Amino acid sequence: QVQLVESGGGLVQAGGSLRLSCAASGLTFDTYAMGWFRQAPGKEREFVAAITTSGGNTLYQHSVKGRFTISRDNAKNTVYLQMNSLKPEDTAVYYCAARSPYSGTNYYSKIGYNYWGQGTQVTVSS
């Protein structure tokens, strides 16, 4: 019943921007921290960004800090990832994930995120 549906991916030139959205349903959204992960071909799925339940704290992978912004709108059960100054190395499938309050505070690890979306492809051309 829990669903996370990503949207907003696509093809963009280096230096461009995309905004990803993740619409959640079937869970009490404002009790879940939310995260974005990405997986490039041949690479492990890696942490990108996370946001706490009320949006009061955000975390970023070092390579995207200053370029990406995670936000959430609890009234809309939606989390966003604004991606600016995109680089070819940002090319990956991007997944949103929900972390329950029982999973602790290790937001960097994919372990503990209870629910995952199906992903949206982001391709950055040079």
In N-to-C order, the SSE pattern is EEEEEEEEEEE
C-alpha Rg, in Å? Answer: 13 Å
What is the tally of beta strands?
A: 11
Q: What helical percentage do the residues reach?
A: under 10%
How many H/I helical runs? Answer: 0
Largest sheet: 7 strands, mixed
Salient structural properties:
126 residues, 7-stranded mixed sheet, 4-stranded antiparallel sheet, 11 strands
Structural notes for this entry:
With 126 residues, this protein is mostly beta strands. It contains no helices and eleven strands. The chain is globular and about 40 Å long.
Blueprint of the fold:
Blueprint: E1 3-7, E2 10-13, E3 18-25, E4 33-39, E5 46-51, E6 58-60, E7 68-73, E8 78-83, E9 92-99, E10 113-116, E11 120-125
Parallel strand pairs: 2-11
Antiparallel strand pairs: 1-3, 3-8, 4-5, 4-9, 5-6, 7-8, 9-10, 9-11
Quickly describe the structure.
0% of the residues lie in helices and 50% in strands. The chain contains no helices and 11 strands.
